Amino acid sequence: MTDYYQQQYEVPTAGTRNPDDLTSPLYGATFGQALRRFFASYLTSAGRASRSEFWWVALAAAGVSAVGIVLIAIGNAITGDDGSGAAMFPTIIGVVVLLVSGFVFGLGSICLTIRRLHDINASGWWYLPIFLLGPIPLVGFLVYIAIIVIGVLPSNPAGIRFDSRS
Asked: Does the reported pTM lie above 0.85?
């Protein structure tokens, strides 16, 4: 019974244990390690990214976006019929937070998703239809489902062919 558990839940051995080593994925990364690795390899599509790296960054991006949305909602709620400019302050700050988070996480998330594709042993070129079809209203929903599936799929040891060698 122990052998079955170890086979099913063992951390892949092809990754790194050193969070500063960006040449291999860090399986079981913590929130801080994942964010540090995300920003250290921000524009790098070479290599692989583990599930934990992918989902911690997704959680951080969602959290920052949620703050912006809450600020916009507060600003809209306190803006009354008087139309005072002071009531618009939370809305303006919320919009700024959303714009900045889009710039901070946007391009890096594309590269992170490509590295995640590499970890499941898929070519990074699979991101191209995701990028092109995402803005189409009904098709875009399926694209976002595809990104969730990419994030959930287990690592494939054959993905080692995408590891960057420094």
From this structure: no
